[in-house]
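agent> fetching stored inputs for the zinc ion docking request
agent> found them:
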Amino acid sequence: MDCLFCKIVAGTAEASIVYQDDTILALCDLYPVNPGHLLVVTRAHATGLTDLDEAGRHMFTVGQRLATAIRRTDLRCEGINLFLADGAAALQDIFHVHLHVIPRYVGDRFRLASGQSPMPTPRSDLDTVAGKVRAALTNQ
Ligand SMILES: [Zn+2]
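agent> prediction call returned; pasting tokens
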């Protein structure tokens, strides 16, 4: 077993746990963007979003609760990002799916270039994309 999060779940790697239940564990990120940066992980190993079952929905529910909790602490927090990297191209670094809960404030070190199109996309192109996703949804 060479997965850091599986080792933490098994209790063989150190972590600062903030929450746990039957399916989810939440812990402090060892390399936080800001103090209070948490990771929500599934107890069962799953590589990415498509490998998750009900635990995936629960992961986001716990993330939402943790975001609320962070705002109630004295940690600096003017906003929150929930961030999930699904796949190497999306900046996933540990291939056991995890949701980042990141307290944010103006002027912090977090950087994520959006890369958004500078111009609005023609409606016909958007409709083509929407059709592809709708078709994939009905085939699930
Ligand atoms: Zn794992």
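agent> quick read of the result: The mean pLDDT is 94.
agent> awaiting further instructions
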